[in-house]
Design a protein that fits this description.
The protein has 189 residues and is an alpha/beta fold. Helix content is 38%, strand content 19%. The protein has an eight-stranded mixed sheet with strand order 3-2-1-4-5-6-7-8, sandwiched between helices. Strand 5, helix 4 and strand 6 form a beta-alpha-beta unit. Helix 3 runs parallel beside helix 4. The longest helix has 16 residues.
């Protein structure tokens, strides 16, 4: 049985948690969010098993921790919890910009423990109450591993993402940011 932690249970974090619960009902899910109502809803709907503080010792038992807050907060939270990570924990995120978080990962010495992620899914709505267990279905999920992450850990994470119905695509952080910037410019014009 795996233990998975979440920092942020908005639309994306909530959807990832709901999808994990759907396909892996035996996994133990822990979460932190500043929105206590979202946490209460997640507990009452049996999506998560425990509510944590940001530097909670229970995060030490996680196989994966998903950083699902806005990018600038993910960087801040990662710094706060770096000493709370278990020996075999892989830290990941769901942010739309990869270079910022990868720079922080290097600064904190977490290159061998971080696999960036960006599910290419979303909605015009936000918050846990709008999350769903099918948001990731057939969506590309960009994976940007740090340069020192062992290949077997990247494979395990890719398999997890695939098991959720998403389509994993492994590229570098620089490639991700170049492609998403190009698409954004195209969509704006």
């Amino acid at each position: 049985m795996k233990t998975i932690g979440f920092i942020g249970l908005g639309l994306i974090g909530g959807s990832v948690a709901r999808t994990i619960r759907k396909f892996h009902p035996d996994y133990h899910l822990l979460a932190f969010d500043t929105d206590r109502e979202a946490l209460a809803e997640a507990v009452s709907s049996n999506i998560i098993d425990g509510v944590c503080d940001i530097e909670d010792e229970r995060f030490r038992s996680c196989d994966y921790i998903f950083l699902c807050a806005p990018v600038e907060f993910n960087v801040e939270y990662m710094e706060k919890m770096k000493d709370s990570l278990g020996e075999n924990c892989i830290l990941t995120d769901v942010g739309s910009v990869k270079s910022i978080i990868h720079e922080k990962v290097t600064e904190l010495g977490l290159d061998s423990r971080f696999i960036g992620g960006h599910p290419m899914a979303g909605s015009e709505r936000s918050g846990f109450s709008n999350s769903s267990d099918h948001l990731l279905e057939n969506a590309y999920y960009i994976i940007t591993p740090g340069g020192e992450v062992p290949l077997d850990r990247i494979s395990d994470f890719t398999e997890l993402i695939s098991s959720l119905g998403a389509i994993p695509l492994v590229i570098t952080a620089e490639e991700h940011d170049f492609i998403t910037a190009g698409v954004s410019i195209f969509l704006i014009s």
